[in-house]
TrEMBL record:
<dbReference type="GO" id="GO:0005506">
    <property type="term" value="F:iron ion binding"/>
</dbReference>
<keyword id="KW-0349">Heme</keyword>
<dbReference type="GO" id="GO:0016705">
    <property type="term" value="F:oxidoreductase activity, acting on paired donors, with incorporation or reduction of molecular oxygen"/>
</dbReference>
<dbReference type="InterPro" id="IPR036396">
    <property type="entry name" value="Cyt_P450_sf"/>
</dbReference>
<keyword id="KW-0408">Iron</keyword>
<keyword id="KW-0472">Membrane</keyword>
<dbReference type="InterPro" id="IPR050651">
    <property type="entry name" value="Plant_Cytochrome_P450_Monoox"/>
</dbReference>
<comment type="similarity">
    <text>Belongs to the cytochrome P450 family.</text>
</comment>
<dbReference type="InterPro" id="IPR002401">
    <property type="entry name" value="Cyt_P450_E_grp-I"/>
</dbReference>
<keyword id="KW-0812">Transmembrane</keyword>
<dbReference type="GO" id="GO:0016020">
    <property type="term" value="C:membrane"/>
</dbReference>
<keyword id="KW-0560">Oxidoreductase</keyword>
<feature type="transmembrane region" description="Helical">
    <location>
        <begin position="6"/>
        <end position="23"/>
    </location>
</feature>
<keyword id="KW-0503">Monooxygenase</keyword>
<dbReference type="GO" id="GO:0020037">
    <property type="term" value="F:heme binding"/>
</dbReference>
<dbReference type="GO" id="GO:0004497">
    <property type="term" value="F:monooxygenase activity"/>
</dbReference>
<keyword id="KW-1133">Transmembrane helix</keyword>
Length: 207
């Protein structure tokens, strides 16, 4: 079904009006300078493959502290060493809070996990529990046999691949599988990646 041009023009008109209204409300805030922004996408069209070069160009034109908007999210980029030190020393508590995303609401128990909750008593308690119960030396040593076993699995797989031919081996995926297998065995006691029939059945059960 074709959409008539008056409806399209009217929709674009209201979209531009809404964007101008929101931009006017945002300009009342004391924000750092920013490049010209487009509706809806913000500054996403300005990002190039070499992101650090792009940000360096912005800092040369706008100053060491500038604002970017990625869709509906506002970002402040700090390129000055002295400003970064001030952010992480004098204003570290103010800047320690995290944005509330929809993913954090539904997968992070209403933003109450350590990766999604704001800085405060709850976050400090979670950090203390992780330091004492999860990442303590005794806890890590208790999983030493798992790490050794998974490293042996990886070495055996590499040896089998090399015994067939001397082709190159892509190690990035191998190390990712190694890390994920260690995590899965620490959590549920089963491997996720494997080669033989027994391991394949465990893979399907883990998935």
């Amino acid at each position: 079904m074709e959409v008539s041009s008056p409806y399209v023009s009217l929709s674009l008109f209201f979209l531009i009006i809404a964007f101008k209204f929101l931009s006017k409300a945002r300009t009342q805030k004391n924000l750092p300078p920013s490049p010209p922004v487009l509706p809806v996408i913000g500054h996403l069209h300005l990002l190039k493959p070499r992101l650090h070069r792009t940000l360096q160009g912005f800092s040369q034109n706008l100053g060491l502290i500038f604002t970017l908007r990625f869709g509906s999210r506002l970002m402040v980029v700090v390129s000055s060493l002295s400003a970064v030190v001030e952010c992480f020393t004098k204003n570290d508590v103010i800047l320690a809070n995290r944005p509330r995303f929809t993913m954090g609401k539904y997968f992070g128990y209403n933003c109450s996990s350590i990766g999604a909750s704001n800085y405060g008593d709850h976050w400090r308690n979670l950090r203390r529990l992780m330091a004492l119960e999860i990442f303590s030396t005794s806890r890590l040593n208790s999983f030493l046999s798992i790490r050794r076993d998974e490293i042996k699995h990886l070495l055996r797989r590499l040896y089998r691949n090399l015994s067939r031919d001397f082709a190159g081996v892509e190690l990035k995926s191998k190390f990712s599988e190694l890390t994920f297998n260690i995590i899965m065995r620490m959590i549920v006691g089963k491997r996720y990646y494997g080669d033989d029939d027994k391991e394949l059945s465990n893979n399907e059960e883990a998935k």
